[in-house]
Design a protein that fits this description.
23 helices, 4-stranded antiparallel sheet, 674 residues, 10-stranded mixed sheet, alpha/beta, elongated
């Protein structure tokens, strides 16, 4: 049987069913001539049709004038229709088809009036018609290469991608998808992606209407998507919550794709779907629609039966979050209050993770709520750089929150190294990117594959509020390069949906209420929580004012006896000078001043230069918290200030800028020739 299928291995590639191994017969002469049959069949049919119309209409003198006028108008109309319908074709094809239509219509009109047997109409049909049919056959033969395959004058040859072959094409409403086969070993998908602008120009479409994504299983294959009409020009009305009363495990709708499919994100993990719980980074320039877009997932979360929402907004106050009322777990406004709330989260994470472990769960699952009443939490922080200053706390939150059933959403305008620590960014499994000023800004969060595949949020800037790209677990990767837009809605509509589902929202679990001080909504100060032994309070606080009355009782109120003064006669006043030997006293060292920190930074640069280092990144410096008393973003900012004088920025190492020492040019003595 094997020999019968492959003829002892003598089959060509075109003869064998690729991937299946079954015999496919070669094309015979009939199948090779079939593509050229239409033009010759049309040539043969024109004469008898014209003769029949002539005998029917032109023999009656009263009908002939009207027939002549009607046929002339019909010929002009058919020619115009041909020109219009062929606009998506190559220029030569469009002109060729229009000329053929015009010539045929003119001959048939003349033949109907005078008769196709008359001279020179008969000769024109016999010779001219055959010439037109032959020219079409020659055109097809050259274009198809003579064997029914795409030839040298195809679309990809015209955009300098010879060798790319289109395979199956799927036509959907406002979208055409074509699978591409690249010449193996000769071309990469990135070569085709760079030509999307030229392809769009060939079709008369705007930039960004053509996208190319790589096949994850075969780098010699790709998918080209063409969207002829921009349906995201105007936002669509909000249809209401997608799953009122449902679980947070269900997809959360945040907008609509350009093909009218819903945009969705997932927060909890699902082992059955091989999906991890995730944090999201939301990025977009001022006016790009981040805050308006955030209101939709907030409303979605507040209409689910097993999810709680915490929203922090350090800058806009009630302007963005006012419509929520008291529906969320907690709404915190003001920079100081948000910073205090963030400091409460590590204790909350530890308590929730410990409790889940005692119940036998290594991550949050719906059973944790159904059996124990512990809901999933989404902590959404607007203008997050205002509260990201404590890098150690944020890194810990990003690394540990997911296992405790908490997803963080950090929203900001530009996710640079100065605005978000790289360790935090590396923990963000999802990205919601709105319009940005330039494509480099999008690269801080969007993956390189998505950008290379055609994602261009810089085209919108803030002129298309709500337009976005979305990446995340559970989302088809082919969707990463598909733009979407948030719905059009009002605060009143969202509030009505929240109120309609007030009865399904989960009650506050005691762990969450205790650690977030949710039992005292009148204050944003964190409440100390008793430790595991029930005696020692745990958690971060800035002053005794942050303690609740119960925790304050744990502190000793007895006065402390101070040591006697060495010199009882010594009196202190504002103008009293310190003793001369006071300069020799050892005072504890505090946080270096900015001037001292800059001096230490320059010293480390000089030390690396003395050791022979010519270039470095921010990662090559010692721990900035313990060395300079500042975060890594401060180091990046100071290195930027040194560019042009002491340093030059020469590129990137991953996502970190690479700096090179600026070497001054010195003149050297050149010995004169004797």
């Amino acid at each position: 049987m094997a020999g019968k299928n492959n003829r002892n291995g003598d089959l060509s590639v075109s003869e064998s069913g690729q991937g299946f191994g079954y015999y496919t017969p070669k094309k015979h002469w009939a199948s090779r001539l079939a593509p050229y049959a239409p033009e010759w069949a049309a040539y043969a049919a024109v004469w008898p049709v014209t003769y029949g119309v002539h005998e029917w209409l032109a023999t009656d003198p009263s009908v002939a004038p009207w027939a002549s006028a009607g046929l002339s108008l019909m010929g002009v109309g058919l020619t115009a229709v041909t020109w219009q319908c062929a606009r998506a074709r190559a220029a030569l094809t469009r002109k060729f088809a229009t000329a053929t239509s015009g010539i045929t219509a003119a001959w048939m009109t003349a033949g109907t009036i005078a008769g196709p047997t008359e001279t020179p109409l008969l000769e024109l049909w016999a010779v001219g018609g055959a010439g037109v049919a032959l020219s079409w056959s020659i055109y097809k033969a050259l274009k198809r290469g003579g064997d029914g395959e795409e030839g040298e004058d195809g679309l990809f040859e015209q955009v300098k991608l010879a060798g790319v072959k289109p395979a199956a094409t799927q036509v959907e409403p406002n979208r055409v998808t074509t699978r591409l086969q690249l010449p193996r070993g000769e071309m990469e998908v990135s070569d085709v992606q760079k030509a999307t602008g030229r392809i769009a120009s060939m079709f008369g479409l705007g930039k960004g209407a053509v996208r190319v994504t790589e096949n994850p299983d075969d780098s010699s294959k790709a998918t080209m998507t063409i969207v002829p009409r921009d349906v995201l020009k105007n936002p669509t009305p909000w249809p209401g919550p997608s799953a009122p009363g449902g679980s947070i495990m269900d997809p959360v709708v945040v907008g609509v794709y350009e093909d009218t499919e819903p945009q969705v994100i997932f927060f909890p993990g699902d082992k059955s779907q091989s999906r991890n719980a995730t944090h999201y980074g939301v990025q977009g320039m001022n006016g790009s629609g981040k805050s308006h877009g955030a209101k939709e997932p907030w409303t979605e979360i507040l209409t689910r039966r097993d999810a709680g929402l915490i929203v922090m907004d350090p800058s806009k106050g009630e302007q963005t979050v006012g419509f929520l009322g008291d529906a969320p777990y907690k709404v915190v406004t003001g920079e100081k209050a948000c910073k205090r709330a963030v400091k409460r989260l590590p204790g909350l994470i530890t308590a929730r993770a410990s409790q889940l472990g005692q119940w036998g769960y290594d991550q949050w699952v719906p059973a944790a709520f159904e059996q124990h009443g512990l809901p999933y939490l989404v902590v959404w922080i607007e203008e997050s750089p205002r509260v990201l200053e404590d890098a150690k706390t944020m890194i810990r939150l990003a690394q540990e929150a997911r296992s405790a059933g908490i997803s963080l959403v950090l929203s900001l305008q530009k996710a640079t190294f100065r605005n978000m620590p790289t360790d935090v960014r590396s923990q963000l499994g999802g990205v919601w990117c709105f319009g940005v000023s330039d494509i480099e800004d999008a690269g801080y969060l969007l993956s390189e594959d998505t950008i290379e595949g055609g994602a261009r949020p810089d085209r919108w800037k803030n002129r298309r509020p709500g337009c976005n790209y979305l990446e995340g677990p559970g989302i088809d990767e082919a969707r990463y390069t598909t733009p979407g837009r948030t719905h059009a809605h009002t605060d009143a509509q969202l509030r009505a949906a929240i109120d309609d589902n007030a009865g399904i929202r989960p009650a506050k679990h005691p762990i969450d209420a205790r650690h977030l001080d949710l039992t005292s909504p009148a204050t944003d100060r964190p409440t100390m929580v008793a430790g595991a032994d029930g005696t020692e309070p745990t958690g971060d606080f800035e002053s005794l004012e942050d303690l609740s009355p119960e925790d304050a009782a744990d502190f000793d109120d007895e006065p402390i006896d101070l040591p006697d003064l060495a010199d009882p006669e010594l009196t202190i006043d504002d103008e009293h000078e310190l003793p001369a030997d006071a300069a020799t006293l050892d005072f504890p060292e505090g946080r270096p001043t900015r001037k001292e920190a800059v001096a230490m930074l320059r010293s480390h640069v000089e030390q690396m230069a003395a050791a022979g280092r010519t270039q470095f990144t921010v990662r090559d410096f010692p721990d900035p918290e313990t060395t300079y008393g500042r975060g890594r973003s401060w180091v990046s900012g100071e290195l930027d200030k040194l560019t042009g004088t002491l340093l030059h920025r020469v590129g990137k190492d991953g996502r970190a800028d690479v700096y090179r020492l600026a070497t001054p040019h010195t003149d050297t003595d050149t010995p004169h020739a004797a």
